[in-house]
Specification:
Blueprint (H helix, E strand, L loop, with lengths): L11 E5 L5 E5 H4 L7 H12 L7 E6 L5 E3 L10 H4 L5 E7 L12 H16 L7 H16 L23 H11 L7 H12 L8 E6 L5 E6 L3 E6 L2 E7 L3 E7 L2 E7 L5 E7 L3 H17 L9 H6 L16 H6 L28
Length: 359
């Protein structure tokens, strides 16, 4: 008699890419199983996208309570219990895990293009707020990349309204984008995208990975992990900033998260926060360990502060970031970048009905 039970090793996964296309990985087609390492899955995605500067990127997934995690390259898919409990099918989201402090200095155009797609998504979904004048400048670079030079015969009134740039988009913004687009003559897509990143990197919330926590008297805070350190926000205002070289230890126990910082007087101070639960606290701790390792200061600085930072890993739980650091990414001589004759297939943004002109 035939068995209708699913084979335990069977795996079917959809990966949503930054251009909103999907990459499907299955046991039948790629041999992906629950016993497959996360690094193998990441490898398929990087080859599909033709990326070499890979350590900035990762794959996210959500558990049933909408807590987000990063796929660990060193673990098998089966070891990601929160992922396995959601499927099948399983959904992963490709995106930037570590935002380059200056994305314009990335070596390959194809890497900058993926950064452009991610930051554009961050602005559209409200994770990267920006003032109206900056939003207009960014929108004009998007239009220039998508449509090329302004042409009055092709780009009739209201053509900008077919695209989405920010939440709750207003007609005034679209008019401003159209005016700026007319001034960008001659910029090819790569140039427009580099200019977009050059403006976006100066925004306060660029590259900030926010984690909600509680301080004294259950007051709400957010800890933001950034390329330069940990930023503390309260009521959407920055109330503290601690640079990676001066953070000597992070630790968590149950729901309590500790951040230990070396002051200018060489004395250490501990800051304590409460997470919503142990799962979110451990996730914050892991992200903090990985950010510190990726963006740490040069290893050849052998001063007392460097020795202090060496204590960073001496915490109760074992977790190590296994990829290249930001410093190694910029100095790695093993791969000659940019590669010659690389072509990029750009995707068109989703469009909407043109806004009807109001009289």
């Amino acid at each position: 008699m035939g068995c209708f039970c699913a084979v335990p090793e069977e795996f079917y996964c959809e990966i949503l890419l930054l251009d909103e296309s999907k990459l499907t990985l299955t046991t039948q087609q790629q041999g992906i199983k629950k016993s497959t390492k996360g690094s193998v899955v990441l490898g398929y995605v990087f080859r599909h996208l033709n990326l070499v500067e890979i350590d900035y990127f990762g794959l996210r997934y959500c558990d049933r309570s909408h807590q987000t995690y990063w796929l660990d390259p060193a673990k098998t898919l089966a070891e990601h219990k929160e992922l396995i409990n959601t499927g099948p099918p399983y959904t992963l989201y490709f995106g930037i895990k570590f935002y380059a402090e200056d994305p314009c200095k990335l070596k390959e155009e194809i890497t900058r293009y993926q950064f452009f797609l991610q930051v554009k998504q961050d602005v559209l979904q409200g994770r990267l707020p920006c003032p109206v004048n900056t939003a207009a400048q960014l929108g004009a670079y998007i239009i220039q990349s998508e449509l090329g030079d302004y042409d009055p015969y092709k780009h009739t009134t209201g053509y900008v309204s077919e695209y989405r740039f920010v939440p709750d988009q207003k007609e005034e913004l679209e008019d401003a984008i159209e005016r700026i687009h007319k001034t960008l003559m001659g910029q090819v897509p790569a140039e427009a995208e580099a200019n977009y990143l050059g403006v976006a990197k100066s925004l306060e919330m660029y590259g900030v990975d926010l984690h909600p926590v509680y301080g004294e008297n259950k007051s709400e805070y957010f800890l933001g992990l950034t390329p330069i350190g940990v930023v503390v926000y309260k009521n959407k205002k920055q109330v503290g900033k601690y640079f990676w070289p001066r953070i000597t230890k992070v630790h968590f126990k149950e729901t309590q998260f500790e951040l230990r910082v070396l002051g200018k007087d060489c004395n250490e101070t501990s800051f304590f926060f409460e997470a919503r639960n142990k799962i979110t606290c451990k996730h914050l701790w892991k992200c903090c360990v990985e950010h510190h390792t990726f963006f740490r200061m040069p290893e050849n600085e052998s001063n007392s502060l460097s020795r202090k930072v060496s204590k960073f890993g001496s915490i109760g739980y074992k977790h190590r970031y296994s990829g290249k650091t930001s410093l190694r990414m910029t100095r790695d001589p093993s791969v000659q970048l940019p590669r010659p004759d690389q072509s990029i297939e750009r995707s068109r943004s989703k469009t909407y009905p043109k806004r009807t002109q109001q009289t």
